[in-house]
Amino acid sequence: MNRHTGMNDLSAVIEADRAHVWHHLTQHKPYETVDPKVMVEGKGMKIWDATGKEHLDAVSGGVWTVNIGYGRESMADVIRDQLLKLNYYAGAAGSVPGALFAEKLIGKMPGMSRVYYSNSGSEANEKAFKMIRQIAHRQHGGRKWKILYRERDYHGTTFGALSAGGQAQRNAQYGPFLPGFVEVPHCLEYRSQWGDVDDYGERAADAIEEVILREGPDTVGGLCLEPITAGGGVIVPPAGYWERVQQICEKYDILLHIDEVVCGVGRTGEWFGYQHYGVKPDFVTMAKGVASGYAAISCTVTTEAVFDQFKDDPDDPMGFFRDISTFGGCTSGPAAALENMRIVEEEGLLDNSTKMGERLLGNLNALMEKHAVIGDVRGKGLFCGAELVADRKTKEPAPEAKVKAVAADCMEQGVIIGAQNRSLADGMNNALLFSPALIATESDIDAITEAVDGALGRVFG
Asked: Of which family is this protein a member (predicted)?
């Protein structure tokens, strides 16, 4: 299909979309009078919609997924070849790409050992929650069943994942949630809960210990955290935080589950976000960047110590992890993931994420000097955020409508950026979000921040 195809050629597609497709995270009332956006083609960092308009994508497919960019022929080739050879067999048996990708992946994750396949980040997190609960029954008489999660973190859309979700608006109208999931405080120093403190990172981690002591250490089995909070505002944990978290988990025999669904496979400049901090997790979950959206795949990765707790008498019907993911048996996922990892390695995309991330942060900091509405800039690698405020002194958040207006202005300019949208409590959805593909160039980064510069000027004056 020609990427410059005009609107008339795709009018039937647009009408079919309007009449029958239920879009994610979208209010459809406006589509009674305006056309829904339909994307048609992508190449590299660019994507074209049904009107033929070209966009520079600064959010990797809208939800931080297309890490290696659009239109990779080698990805299509390996997927096609694998589908013709063997497209599927249930995960109770192995497959060639499943075995080879697991081996390759574990090679990037010292201390980890086993890979459990499923097909989405929500599902990968559910598997970890179920493993923690089953370990509680098998090893602790059912007592260590509670799972802690952090305010502002997000772990998916299923009921278990929502029960572990620290975003009030995402959770609204879906309760009551599952028992045994307990929230701990966020670690955003810019909005410190304890005023100005010299050791905020350690203080925020100590707040986790306070929750553990309140709940009872013998009842807490797991702690689930994003390495860098994503949709909650791109929160990079402050110095001392992760080291103290590790100590707390070891002290109270709590399994540490790190959700790398967004940060995993190069987004932050390391293979995984937790690897910036010297942390030794018990579980690592991942999805989006594993195959860059070319195939559906997610992984729940564990240590051998976790895995060993499910090895028992073969005749014991309760002695193994009693779980299945139908589409975890699709072979296209690990086949695509292998090729995705090859591309990241051979093209040096971890280094590029680091270098271009530094440029993106530098450009955003320059914009903060120019626009008083930017209160804070933060990020790591090609994963950055800019928090907008109505007043720098009071840190009053900028109105969500204006934050969304900045993103809409950029879209009109042909640059797609992210904005917090109906996730945190009212009044706190005030950050712009950036996660361009790991192939981004200096000119791409500059084009992104130039669009933001113009949009801020028009929206805020």
From this structure: Belongs to the class-III pyridoxal-phosphate-dependent aminotransferase family.
Distance of alpha carbon 203 from the chain centroid: 25
CA 360 centroid distance within chain: 19
Structure token digits, residue 38: 């339909």
The DSSP secondary-structure symbol of 189 reads G
Cα 130 to Cα 178: distance, rounded to the nearest angstrom: 12
Longest CA span, the chain = 71
CA distance 223 to 130: 13
User: How many residues are present in the chain?
Assistant: 461
Q: Kindly indicate whether the domain formed by 38-71+349-460 is annotated with CATH number 1.10.3720.10.
A: no
pTM: predicted TM-score of the whole model, two decimal places: 0.96
Q: What is residue 423's predicted lDDT score, i.e. its pLDDT?
A: 79
Nearest CA to 320 out of 114, 103, 143 is that of: 114
CATH second-level architecture of 73-347?
3-Layer(aba) Sandwich (3.40)
Quickly count: other Cβ atoms within 10 Å of residue 73's Cβ: 7
pLDDT of amino acid 3: 52
In contact, 334 and 352? CB cutoff 8 Å: no
- Residues 406, 391: contact at Cβ < 8 Å? no
Determine phi and psi for 178, rounding to 5 degrees.
Answer: -70, 140
How big is the CA angle at 71 (ends 65 and 75), to the nearest 5 degrees? 80
Q: Which residues of the chain have pLDDT under 70?
A: 1-8
Q: Are 392 and 207 in contact (CB under 8 A)?
A: no
CB atoms within 10 A of CB 92: 7
| Sign, Cα dihedral of 8, 19, 70, 357 | positive
Q: Do domains 38-71+349-460 and 73-347 have the same CATH topology?
A: no
